Each structure stands twice: as C-alpha cells, then as structure tokens.
Amino acid sequence: MKKSLKARNNDIANTARQMEILSNGVFASGELPTFAEKIKKTHQFPLRPNKLEILQINLGYMCNQVCGHCHVDAGPDRKEIMTIDTMQLCLDVIKTTEAHTLDLTGGAPEMNPNFRWFVEEASKAGIKDFIVRSNLTIIRANKKYYDLPEFFKKHNVHVVSSMPHWTRGKTDKQRGNGVFDKSIKALQELNAVGYGLEGSDLKLDLVYNPSGAFLPGDQQALENDFKKALKTEFHIDFHSLFAITNLPISRFLDYLIASENYEEYMVSLVEAYNPAAVTNVMCTNTISVSWDGWLYDCDFNQMLNLKVASTVKHISDYNEAKLQDRNIITNQHCYGCTAGAGSSCQGVVA
Amino acid sequence: MSKNYYDAADLRKFSKITDWSPELGNKFFDYYGKVFEEGALTAREKSLIALAVAHTEQCPYCIDAYTKDGLQRGITKEQMMEAIHVGAAIKSGATLVHGVQMMNKVDKLEM
User: For residues A229 and A235, is the Cβ–Cβ distance under 8 A?
Assistant: First the structure.
C-alpha cells in the first residue's frame, strides 16, 4: 500500500506550499482571475455564512485506504485522531447547536477507538440527520468492523459512502486494488439490514468523485447509470448519488502536478464557474471541526490549515452566534465548489 | 505565431470566433448547444457519436473535448473505443464501397 504524502515527506504535504501553488502560476500572471476577483464581480465578496445547517466533525486522518484523490492525505500511517476529551467538547456543542445535520468524517471515522461511544452519545442529542461517511471497505477490513451495518441501523445513522464508479477498473485505480470487490460486498451487507432500499428510512447514499483530471458530469444522469449497473450486476440498491468535484489540494493536487494536468484542470474549473453555486456553497452552511478541535469553514480549508476568521477558533470556546458573524476564507481551491452545478459534501448545490 | 498548426490551448479560444462575425458565430453556438441537448437521443449517446465523428474528421480539438466529455459522463474507455471503431468501420467501408465504382469502370472499359 502507498504511503501518505506526509509519510513520504512530499513537498505538497506542506499546506503553505499548497497555498503557494494555488496563489502563483496562472493566477499570479493574470491569465486566470483569482476566486476573490471572480466573486467580487457578482458582489459576493466577502463570502458570508447563511444559516448554520451542518456540523461536520473530522474524527481523524487515519484510514485503511490511500486513495489517489484524497484531500485529507489520509492513510494507515496517519495517527492524528480525535481524543475522547475533544469528543466530549463536541458533544456539548451537538446538544446546543442550531445545525440539523451532524456529519462524521475522516479518514475512516470508524477507526477511531471511541467512534462507537461517540455515535451512541451523539445520537441521544436528537439531531435530525446523523451522517457517517464510510469508505465501505472498512466494514470488510477486520472482524471487529463486520457488525457496523447493524450498529449503524441501531442508531439510525445515515450512511454516505464513496464509490467512484460501477466498474472494478476505475474504482481500484483511484482507491486501490481490491477496493471494488470489498465495497460491493459492504453495500450488499448494508442492503441486507435494510439500508438503501426503496421506501426505507435507513438512508444509504453514494459519493462519486471523478477518477482523474476532469469534472463530474450531470449528477442525475450519473445516479441513473450507477443505479442501473449496480442493480443489474450486483443486486445493490441505494438512495441518492452525490457527485463531488475533486478539489486541487493535497493528494489530488500532487496528482495534477505530476500528470501535468494542473493548469488545464484549473482552467476547466474557472471556465465552469457558476455564480449561482456560490450562494449555496457548503462553507455558507457548515462548520468543520478538526480531530484536534480547531474550527474551519469547510473540510477543505481544514486540510489547508485555514482556521475560521473569528475570535472563536476552537471547539473549547465554541459560540455559534459569534462564529456566524465572520467572513469565510476563500482561495483558488474554492473554484472546485462553484464549477458547473456546484459541489459539496451533499452533492450539487445549484 | 505558433510554430505548430494545432495548439491545445486554442480550443479555449473557440468562442472568439464570434468576434469577427458575431451574428454567424452566435448562430453557430446556439445551434451547437441545441444539438447536444437531451432529445430523442440522450446527451450520452450524442457524446459518443461526437467522439466517433471527431476521429473520422481527425479534429484534435474535438477528440480532446469529447474524450473529456465522455469521462465526465461516466462513459468507459471500452465504450469510447467501440464508438471509434464504428467511425473507423464507416470510414473504411466508405473507401471500400467506392471499389464497386472502380469495378464498374473496369467492366465497362475492358473487352
């Protein structure tokens, strides 16, 4: 298995280096407008929060996979995971937040040793939509995870899973050898306990990321193709497909540069810029919490170490009213969320 | 001036065609956009046809554009290659079928 950029001491693992790349080149030369210049034209700068809807908590960067596009640079060698003390601070916030959705992500959040305790405690808070982002293969990675489908069901967790394609070749190329077969098995096991079935309250949604330097196509058309192929070949059901654009940061940025696709990809993002998507972009309704409790506008800003521009910066000082009165930090990576129909952890936004 | 006849970056300038003849250029782009909308054929089917024609017309810009378009639509490389073979088969068939004309001419001229 490959190692993370961090473990390889790759230059791109340094967030300052990523910011330098995103700020220079075609943007410094004026060939392409910066994101700030672009949204100024439609009087949307500075970007400000709308009503808070989603509290997204990253339980750690440890993962059983090393996907080629991962914006977290997650992997088995990443040891940063949320402690039980920070989880307790998060639970205090979950009990009082105005957000209707709690979204647990990683890495593989299930690998945090206190994951189950946290889910049990958080599910008592009466959150309307409780999401766990599962990479699917974790369910088949080790015996101790085999009962995850039953555990998710018990706590009425909304499972959102990554699945880049309905073919083995494309999936394994992006996510590693054997990932497709394990993912199919995991989806069948989730179906077996009632997840993803028509009319079922046990929600199972899939996330599609393009497996290369191109943007996602029409979300509905892709969902139709996924449903047809997975049903016909593997008898798998799921509810919705979220098409998410790969943002030019971390491992995907490294891939873009190494494959000499960086400039053309940025041109594609800028050309596909849609001002309507800016209005509903994910950072306007989300607060992202890192494994060590710092607060960010979104998971991407977290990975670039761009903490919220607020007097409240850490979960230990959490104050929702103060946080909502802030300017959102943007840079050129934000073009990834405003291209075409837009992109967020919940799929298209425009 | 570029040293090459084709420059991949020129595809980005395609819309500038309207600069020197806005009326005709805009009519073309309106028509082009309309053609590729969902209709009796899906946008996916149209993308594959466009890819095959791009090859028979040997247009490097169109090949780049419709390969990327196909990937975005989730079209597999096997499907793309089959579409190109359809184009190649028609192109070679179109050459070969003219052989009948040659045969007719030979039959007419020879004793």
Answer: no
